[in-house]
Amino acid sequence: MSTKKYGYIHKTIISGGVIEHVKCFTHKYHPPGVGRVKHKETPEELEAKSWNRKEKDLTRLLNTNYRNGDFHITLTYGGDQKPGSMKELKAEASAYLRKVKRAYSRTGQSLKYVYVPTLGKSGTNPHIHLIANRLYGLDPVDNLALFQELWTDKDGKRRGWIKTKTLYSEPQFKELAAYLIRNAKESKEKNKRAFIPSQNLDKPIIHTQRIAARRFSLRITPPRGYELEKGSVYEGSTRTGYPYITYTFIRKAPKVSIMDRLRGISPKAPSSGSGHRRRSARGGRKRERKRA
User: Fold this and answer.
1) Which of 61, 201, 222, 248 sits in a 20 to 30 Å window from 193, CA-based?
2) Could you tell me whether strands 162-166 and 71-76 are parallel, antiparallel, or unpaired per DSSP bridges?
3) Euclidean distance between CA atoms 218 and 206, whole angstroms
């Protein structure tokens, strides 16, 4: 084997305040003795692999674009307003989001959303899970009232009620992503895309490099301001026999005292230099007294 193929792939995925590391051997880059194991994946394995990939993609998208205080909104239907198919549900979601985007644009801000349409397990409980950024400069209560006000049909009749939550687990939204994907998976009629994002969302940053070594570097050192996420270190092998290791760093939450919160002081704001100026002023006054 050519020495050029020795080594492993080190992939770094940066999504907001989360940094994932994946180190793995591949069929192209691996040391001697690590051979490819033939394995034909079953339809069940392929489906599970697809859903896992969708959950990871959604997690990274949420981590990159949303912050604490943004919204998780569930749009529900009442009475005879329920759509009968996934196609109708998506059409009504698109019409609704166009109205919300126009309302946001009037304030000079853009709506960034991800939505998951689902008909429920029985197919008789259609609803839409919507993740959206908040409007800055507007009270959150009024912001959520806007979403409710616009949830109407073309005749202005209210379609149903909305259920609202604010996001709180920044920088890691993987539990929310798992919940949304589970809803998409359990829908009686599934959409081809588990989730539908707006086109203005930022994408995670992915760096891939080949490391010329026969073994993984097991040194795990978080960068400054980050910590190792609990339970994120995992070692295993792919179904084709190639070893890999994964681990995740998350940004530390800033420490803010209760008094600082009451004063409205940012945890990152440096202490003011007023103390130094006060000492200079006192020294100046003492010198003036001596001269007098």
Assistant:
1) 248
2) antiparallel
3) 21
Q: What is the pTM of this model?
A: 0.81
Please state, rounded to an integer, the average pLDDT across all residues of the chain.
83
In terms of phi and psi (left: phi > 0; alpha: psi -120 to 50; beta: otherwise), the region of 211 is: beta
Count of structural domains within the chain:
3
Q: Which residue has the tokens 């409710």?
A: 148
Cα 54 to Cα 209: distance, rounded to the nearest angstrom: 24
Q: Could you tell me if 278 and 233 lie in one domain? A: no
* Percent of the chain whose pLDDT exceeds 90: 53
Residue 122's CB is within 10 A of a number of other CB atoms, namely 7
Q: Do 208 and 158 fall into the same domain?
A: no
